[in-house]
């Protein structure tokens, strides 16, 4: 691939810039005597110029004009000074000032399957975690401030920031996201937990173009955490959507019908989807012959790259010509011009492509069992594999609201869940599937376990004890009545547990070992591999006996988003159970199945935890109560917390070694992929 170097790039000065010393090309590896800013590895423009006693001159990717022509609906580009915010974020690259150009090649399983590692490469949010995974730093937002009791958050945006189509990005776009998308049941049927405080909606108001306030009914200090570590983007382009939003435009439905849609909300969903997941198919995949009449192929973005092509085989992106970040030499980021994502559903084929060096970065859906062959092929394939600790681990749940009443009764019996937990040989799982590198554990909700949570809960009913499992099952009346070696239901009919799983959640070998453990104590378990889409669809429609996916969140994350603590105990893309408990709660008892009393106790403890200042006695006591309730119920069964591979091409520069292989800090997001660049 041909690379374009910075030596031939024209430089521009922002209005009002006086002649002054050029700025040093500061990197994390060599700060050249420039003092660090208020936040690690980045500066506000005035802060950097003051620290370095210089004035930044700005330069752009020489190919950006051509890239812009591939963004349907974008006009001719104005000068760089009119594309950058007047307050761009200045970032220090890790090792070197990069070169422009090239294409980052990515690999996913399918549409919305195994894609979040690639999505995180272009992701932006109001804030982010720095790469220490402890410090929240500004990103899209310039700053934030809380009032004394954490009931009002004031966020200040960057003056002059623009969407990828050149339209101004303002506080109105944040208020629009909350008031007209998140809280409009025609778009999102039920508001997410993170969007509520004390179970009640927030008041989100644009004070002026760069100031937005979040006023909360109850304290929620973890709100900034949600806007730092998740895929959620609390801003959407009001200027684009308001022409189709019935609450904002009397002609919205007519405008949508003229383009072939039933109404305004249908057209909004064609672009935005019907959830807060920012990776739903675009009109390029869903609109068919209506696409040509739509104003754009995809909605405007603030991300580093924008989608320009989508098929069932993959997607292609080009650099956002209005991206708000520059490096310390004044070069507009991102360095990488294009990104290409292909879909490969077969794990063996994905591994072969990785071995051949056809991919620049991959972490999601690479199971640890693939690590030996990938490590062996590093030199030949010109790539590096790092094996790093995980946060979430494969976690299993039985369907406590199964449609079949007999199964529901069994799965609701804590003796059954306890038996299935102690029948599992976690040490064998660790040795065989994690090469002894993992840690057998029970699910406690918090991961990693904070010091204020008693270690006993990580071991609760997690020891291998098939004799005890057999005794508990016998006590329940699940005995082998026909002598075939498998336990039967009390009425004498066969009891067979059907386990449908996706290898995106864990390896087939992992599932096979557990299924054999359970079969060994008489609970015949059949297994079937399905795609992640099939798994999620069946889980959502309450059709599965068993669900499994990675689960567990850091303490800070739970401060802002407590979804894993309330029915159905996670989101669409994760492991859930008790779908009918959730339906009962959301319908105020009109539908579904009433949950047991401990569910309300758990929610009360969560509310206290989220509304308390971290580290206080109230916060610690609430967290301890949450863990005690969740773990003692064994609603979710923990397995082994194991490390996992991270793969990257040796041509990918400024690639910092990750601290974890985890979704929970949003994969690459703390490591600033906009400053990656490619060499040959």
Q: Widest sheet: strand order?
A: 7-19-17-16
CATH class of the largest domain: Alpha Beta
How many runs of DSSP E, i.e. beta strands? 31
Detail the poorly predicted runs: 1-19
Any idea how many domains?
A: 3
Structural class: alpha+beta
Through-space gap between termini: 7 Å
What's the average pLDDT? 94
What is the overall silhouette?
Answer: globular
Strand content: 15-25%
Q: Cα-atom Rg, whole angstroms?
A: 26 Å
* Total number of helices: 22
For the largest beta-sheet, the strand count, sense and barrel status come to:
4 strands, mixed
CATH superfamily label of the largest domain? Dipeptide-binding Protein, Domain 3
Family: Belongs to the bacterial solute-binding protein 5 family.
Protein name: Putative ABC transporter-binding protein
Subcellular location: Periplasm
GO biological process, one term: peptide transport
Commentary on this structure:
The structure is a single chain. With 680 residues, the chain is α+β, with helices and mostly antiparallel strands. It has 3 domains: 124-302, Dipeptide-binding Protein, domain 1 (Alpha-Beta Complex); 347-388 and 646-678, no CATH class; 393-477 and 486-641, Dipeptide-binding Protein, Domain 3 (Dipeptide-binding Protein, domain 3, Roll), CATH 3.10.105. It contains 22 helices and 31 strands. Strands 7-19-17-16 form a 4-stranded mixed sheet. A 4-stranded antiparallel sheet has the order 10-11-15-14. The longest helix is centred in the C-terminal third of the chain and has 17 residues, at 617-633. The model is unreliable at 1-19 (pLDDT under 50).
